[in-house]
Amino acid sequence: MDFSTLCIHGCNIKYDTTGAVSVPIFQSATFAHPGVGLSTGYDYSRVQNPTREHLERTVARLENGTDAMAFSSGMAAVAALMELFRPGDHIIASDDLYGGSHRLFSHISRKNGLSFDFVDTSDISGITAHIRPETKALFIETPSNPLMQVTDIAAVSELCKKHGFLLIVDNTFLTPYFQKPLDLGADVVVHSGTKYLGGHNDTLAGFLVVSDSSLSERLRFIYRTTGACLSPFDSWLLIRGIKTLPVRMERQQENAVKIANWLCTNNRIKSVYYAGLPSHPHFEVSKKQATGFGAMISFETDCEKTALQLLENVRIIQFAESLGGTESLITYPMLQTHADVPEEIRRAKGINECLLRLSVGLESAGDLIEDLRQALEGA
Is 274 a catalytic site residue? Predict the structure, then answer.
């Protein structure tokens, strides 16, 4: 079945007999037993709920996985994932990583006895140099947040399998529409469903997707025990958002290509980070493992004053955290998404007072470019 059809119809389970075209919202915390020792298959919504089940099975199919778990946020999903590991375990992670993940790993997970090395995962030799006997996982974002580094998923999967540890891929930026990490050898796919899967900046959600049944059982146990499950209504919002995922991703990418190319011509912009530019150092890797480049652009202005005044002068683009929605959003990573990353680490990666991140929405590309132009001229 075509991906677009799967997005609209999801899993083929019918939950009621009314013929409702929209999946019902089963807004119930608990479910009655038909008799002693009997169950309808649903007992308590922390364990499973029909609306959430429909969403999870849909996301699993989209990622070519066997199971997906829907969490109350992307960070809830990552926090649950960390419960797979024990004190003394070691994890290698991308050094250009969403600040929330970095904060969780550096403060909560380390407090719980895990150790981390943050490396440039686009360089396999750098990963290899940090492998230890106690290494249990490689956690990557590709493209990374915010500098859009691309990691060769198939190549690092081969490395992980050789050394016997898990490959975890955050696929938030490209979604299964453009990239399917499980097909390339990943063991776990992570999503902030708040972003492109939901697509409307109106709810929080997170996902873990797997293919291996034993890994699914371990994560399901953690999931129902720690309890950060997605609510029925938020599950319905994600089901609705996914229906338009392909058309949104195509239009947002189309806009992003135009804007990235325009930014490259503006003398107030020093650098443009977009995986879809042929000048991007990992352009060929992106073409090999993904069917698109997404709609996330980061760029560096000529000075801090330009960056600040651009943020204050945009009229259509909104200065706000998050990404992947219908509205275009611009973010100041050093003060927002990566504020908790130590300054020396931020600056070493180029996350400085001149760096901005743009999530390109569904508005007219011409209007967005004009908005950026007038904001830059105002600066």
Answer: no
User: Where are the domains positioned within the chain?
Assistant: 3-242, 246-378
* pLDDT single digits (tens) 246-275: 999 999 999 999 999 999 999 999 999 999
For residue 170, indicate whether it is catalytic.
yes
Which helix (H) or strand (E) is 246 found in, with range? helix 245-264
| Known catalytic membership, residue 120 | no
67, 96, 98, 274: which one is catalytic? 98
- What CATH number labels 246-378? 3.90.1150.10
Give the right CATH number for 3-242 from 3.40.640.10, 1.10.150.120, 3.90.1150.10, 3.40.50.720: 3.40.640.10
Q: Which of 15, 46, 103, 120 is catalytic?
A: 46
96 phi-psi bin (left φ>0, alpha ψ -120 to 50, beta other): beta
196 is catalytic: no
Check 67, 170, 234, 371 and give the catalytic one: 170
Are the C-beta atoms of residues 339 and 99 closer than 8 Å to each other?
Answer: yes
Per-residue pLDDT tens digits for 276-313: 999 999 999 999 999 999 999 999 999 999 999 999 99
Q: Do residues 194 and 74 make contact, with C-beta atoms less than 8 angstroms apart?
A: yes
Q: How far is CA 360 from CA 71, 200, 351, in A?
A: 25, 13, 20
